[in-house]
Amino acid sequence: MKSRDDLQKWICQALKSFNGEGSIVDVAKYIWQNHENELKSSGDLFYTWQYDMRWAATKLRENKEILPAEKSQKGIWKLA
User: Is the pLDDT of residue 61 over 80?
Assistant: First the structure.
């Protein structure tokens, strides 16, 4: 079963597919298009994954894998 931690990897995959940056909506669409079945079989994560995606982005910022919010446009995530 997938967990919140998997979302960090999926966010990075999405951003790489968008040449290093993308909107939150585009990242969510990418995750859904590429991991729908995994999300559907992930228990409670299925109901919270879009919230948890933002949590995962915060963790990626703490690990310096994506830029801090103040260094990118509102609603845009960029790989560091």
Answer: yes
